[in-house]
Design a protein that fits this description.
It is built from one helix and 25 strands. By secondary structure, it is mainly β.
């Protein structure tokens, strides 16, 4: 391409480059995944670079359309896509909108990421999280001695909802004995404050750190309680997931609520000595394999 007749997309240029080449990318938003398969050399790197004074954006999202306003507290589906039935609904329904997302447009539904006008929407959570992007484990609900020694369930008697209420929600469990890490599990059963996990935790629950092990429940219809939060089903029904959002601004429902539908922005596939400079990459990761000398 040339300045007066540039190529339309970056991935096309990636298929043309040779060692020593530099691809200058004009400012704008590019909805594509760029795959680089060609090696540069130590003395002749391949470079993808922002055009001077401009900012190209690699965006791995697709617009969610067809939003409708929830009409009642019971106008929600369970995580498995079935009706909530007689379970309590969400009293904030008048602020919440729903739409369907094709299952073919997302990868693992448990990792579904939703953005509003470029801002990440946080998954509905109990307890509420202080940080709107990353989990804040210090905001998790501390567990008590009734859960010590367990790996397949925990108990919190303040969870007084009917049996089965939390099934399908995501439980994040902060386990100090497992190198102070958080494990994510689906709730497979719930009764009388006992939350059963879909698989065993990597270590026994206890009080081995500076504070007791703790948990959060996430991605459940009842937890949508403020602007900038999202809940979505994790089992497709007739080829679609259902997404529920409490938007920051309802004007964004027209085209600015988006779902990440690509795994990567740049994929350095068997490519060494490649430089990426001056890009904004959102809604995706940048991935490489075992090749070297990338920057």
């Amino acid at each position: 391409g040339t300045l007066s007749q540039p190529w339309r997309n970056i991935n096309y240029a990636a298929g043309k480059v040779q060692p020593g080449d530099t691809v200058l990318v004009r400012g704008g938003v590019y909805y594509e995944m760029v795959t680089s398969r060609v090696n540069g050399t130590s003395s002749a790197r391949i470079t993808f670079k922002a055009y001077p004074g401009e900012t190209p954006v690699i965006d791995g999202t697709a617009a969610i359309t067809g939003w409708t306003k929830c009409t009642s507290a019971s106008d929600f589906l369970r995580p498995d896509g079935t009706s909530i039935g007689s379970f309590a609904g969400n009293p904030n329904f008048a602020n919440i909108y729903k739409a369907q997302v094709p299952a073919t447009s997302v990868g693992n539904p448990s990792d579904m990421a939703i953005y509003e006008n470029g801002e990440y929407l946080f998954t509905s959570s109990f307890p509420d999280q202080k940080n709107n992007v990353f989990d804040d484990e210090t905001s998790y609900e501390p567990l008590t001695s009734s859960s010590w020694g367990q790996t397949t369930y925990f108990i919190d008697t303040s969870l007084n909802q009917p049996s089965g209420f939390w099934i399908g929600a995501t439980a994040k469990v902060w386990v100090h004995a497992n190198n102070n890490t958080v494990s994510s599990r689906k709730v497979s059963a719930f009764s009388s404050g006992r939350v059963t996990l879909s698989s065993a935790l990597p270590a026994k629950l206890g009080n081995t750190g500076s504070m007791p092990d703790a948990y959060a429940l996430q991605n459940h219809w009842s937890l949508l309680n403020k602007k900038g939060t999202v809940y979505h089903t994790t089992k497709a029904v007739n080829g679609y997931y259902t997404v529920y959002v409490w938007p920051h601004n309802t004007a964004n429902l027209a085209s600015n609520i988006r779902v990440s539908n690509r795994d990567m922005g740049f994929w350095m596939q068997n490519a060494s000595y490649v430089t990426i400079d001056g890009f904004v990459i959102r809604g995706v990761a940048t991935r490489s394999n075992s090749q070297t000398h990338r920057s």
